[in-house]
Amino acid sequence: MPEIQDLVRGMPVEVAEVNRSLQVLWEQEGDVLTRASLINFAVYSEAPDALSANTQLMEQVTHEHACRVILLAANPAASKQRVQAWISAHCHGTGAGARQVCSEQIAFLLDRSSPDLIRNILFSHLDSDLPLYLWWQGELSHQVDQQLWSWVDRFFFDSHSWREPVQQLTILRGSVASAGSRCVLCDLNWRRLIYLRLAFAQVFDHPWVAQQIDAIRDLEVTYHPEYWTTAILFICWVACQLGWELEQKGDFECRFRSDKAGAPVFVRLKALPGPWIGHIKLRFDACYLQVDWHGDFLETTLQGESRLRQILPAGGTTLAELVQEELARGGEHRTYLGALKIAEELWQGE
Q: CA 81, CA 295: separation in Å to the nearest integer?
């Protein structure tokens, strides 16, 4: 009988025997381990250390979200096609005796992978009664088979890693549209902004601030140099929520038009080491709104007729925490889609 540590490391099995081996595993361990699963969570990566890194990552994710994990580590440049498989389990104590609740994991190493191979391996090992969440790590490519899109309920990706965002959006839009997909787009880069957006938006609940919206003159955003796409998404969210339309763009400054305001709104970006977005300042005619990231907290400052300060949580910053946050919140992300339309204009030609 395998030890729990062995289950985490993974046991090699023949591809054709994966499902049978899992069934035998749970029959043997039924007295101390309970299998739990709410979704199929597939993770595709072409990184050299994908299996090891994603196994550690899913160990954290499954602590809060039980699922069948399917890891797909691809090596398209291999000289010949070969598929290797391992089964394992992520087990967590329940606090009630010795019994542990486990999420099973199936890991595949795909040498010289192709869209057909990826699709067939994935389809053959889904828990068919559960929704499918697919996380595509790194740059998007045409490796996603069109038939696969019709099966995916939620598609995870991280636009932070995109070096050519417009090209990536073209691939994404073409794949989803051509397949008539019903999947929800889940951008972890958008999820990074959730607590900043909440801190920024709640100040507008103040009646005095709501009356000043037409007097907004400029927005300044200071961001970490590696998180330019994150800063653009934040700016586009503000523009979308306030009804701004892009008039002119530059490398670090752009101009928006507001139908309500009598003057244009200028947006300035500043790249400095620090948090993803370390400083936000929105200036009105007679006041300003400021958000600063300090460690685990966000400090909002409203300077107008009086001075109002608040300290709010900044949220988690690790990749596992972002995934857990996305899994917990769900939703169709319609606000994201609106911001993405403006972001594509800003990303174009950069």
A: 47
CATH number of the domain where residue 222 is located: 3.30.360
d(Cα 219, Cα 280) in Å, to the nearest integer?
7
Classify the C-alpha dihedral 146-148-154-160 as positive or negative. negative
SS3 36: coil
Tell which of 156, 189, 222 closes a domain.
189
In the chain, the number of structural domains is 2
**What span, in angstroms and rounded, lies between the C-alpha atoms of 219 and 243?**
14
Choose one of 189, 209, 238: the last residue of a domain: 189
Torsions phi, psi of 40, nearest 5?
-90, 125
Q: Cα–Cα distance between 136 and 291 in angstroms, integer?
A: 32
Which phi and psi angles does 83 have, rounded to 5°?
A: -125, 125
| 3-state percent helix, strand, coil for the chain, nearest multiple of 5 | 35, 30, 30
CA 58 to CA 69: how far, in whole Å?
Answer: 8
Tokens at 150, concatenated: 């019709």
Q: Domain range spanning residue 116?
A: 4-189
| Residue pair 169/206 in contact by the 8 Å Cβ criterion | no
DSSP tally for the chain: helices H, then strands E: 12, 17
> In the chain, where does DSSP find H-type helix?
4-9, 18-28, 50-61, 115-124, 146-149, 165-178, 188-191, 194-202, 207-210, 228-242, 319-329, 334-347
For residue 209 the two structure tokens come to 């601030």
Q: Are both 185 and 149 inside the same structural domain?
A: yes
Residues 126, 127, 132: CA angle, nearest 5 degrees? 65
DSSP strand pairing (100-111 vs 68-75): parallel
Helix (H) or strand (E) holding 133: strand 132-136
Mean pLDDT split into 10-residue runs, the chain, 350 residues: 45 91 79 84 93 94 94 90 92 72 93 88 91 93 74 92 89 72 88 95 85 89 96 96 90 85 87 96 91 96 86 94 92 90 82
